């Protein structure tokens, strides 16, 4: 059982010598619970008749952790998290750590409260969908924040949408959760982080050391894909992952599963090189994204794209389901979190099916053998079709096509549709490459 499961529910408690009241539970993860806390001094001043100009009630986020034994391993980890977080708290795009206090059983961290929630839920709510300017500005702020981290000798190692807070409009990102942060530029702590966002060399199956600064840059690139498409390109960059292998053998693989522009694809190909020394630096990444002419495929390109790509772009696609409903990346329980501290414990927004993580496209759905011709059907007048578990697919369909209803019927003509011209040779090249592996 996760440590947070053994922690008592302190909602309604008065802590910090009466200064804070824990009014609601925001989330619970592997190592702690997060509460929304009211500053009691702000309410007393507001209720005072003589303070007509007093400010509104102030709220904080209070992370509750189990108090570790003296000089234990957990004590060292908690101390490292607090030390590194304090070192970078001054940046406007990093959650502020105000102070900490303890009681006999718990350690409490008093953090900046962000009412908007985390980036993961903003993505699944469709806040960033086709909003190029918001994606650019949000990503630029993340790059600036990570540059600040690195300039202070702090490397996060668990950057992902769940660990980034935003306002209600998806802007003003704040990096949170320093549970896995390290001051080391070279790390022997393998398999540390969230699988979908980790570099190939950070897995113990591939190497014995890796560079945390480069891991942060890699994670930002995956996060950029999340912002653009609400998808992860692979579960993990390891030889055991079929999508990662497809990416290594086919430079066009990303555009066969995600509706991204050729310019963004070229940048990502450089960022995901196996040789870490050949990848762009964090500064180069920020400048390159800012200079990209576009992030998405054009309508002309989408007409020739695979069904999975068109679905992700918000187009109606008749025929077989483009996604495998069981094919979702697993939620991470790394770190102690801030807002979601494990999205599996959060209540999904109204009308959105529960999902543990961003969807990973089914490569079979984007294969040329499953292509269907574009019919130009009006999405508002046709119900989308699903063959498998509808709950798992509602997550993506409502993100891309919120006005569509879900039907259990399917188009029998889609399976017999011929592949698009010029794609058969690409399939043969990929099959030959796989035989050589």
TrEMBL record:
In the record, biological process GO terms are: signal transduction
> Could you tell me which SMART domains the record lists for this protein?
S_TKc
Q: Provide the leader sequence positions.
A: none
Q: Which reaction does it catalyse?
A: L-seryl-[protein] + ATP = O-phospho-L-seryl-[protein] + ADP + H(+); L-threonyl-[protein] + ATP = O-phospho-L-threonyl-[protein] + ADP + H(+)
Residues of the Protein kinase domain: 20-293
What EC designation does it have?
2.7.11.1
Q: Which InterPro entries match?
A: Kinase-like_dom_sf, Prot_kinase_dom, Ser/Thr_kinase_AS
Region feature (Disordered): 361-389
Any one Gene Ontology MF annotation carried by this entry is: protein serine/threonine kinase activity
Sorted keywords for this record are:
ATP-binding, Kinase, Nucleotide-binding, Serine/threonine-protein kinase, Transferase
| PANTHER family, A to Z | CALCIUM/CALMODULIN-DEPENDENT PROTEIN KINASE KINASE-RELATED (PTHR43895), SERINE_THREONINE-PROTEIN KINASE CHK1 (PTHR43895:SF32)
The protein depicted here goes by the name non-specific serine/threonine protein kinase
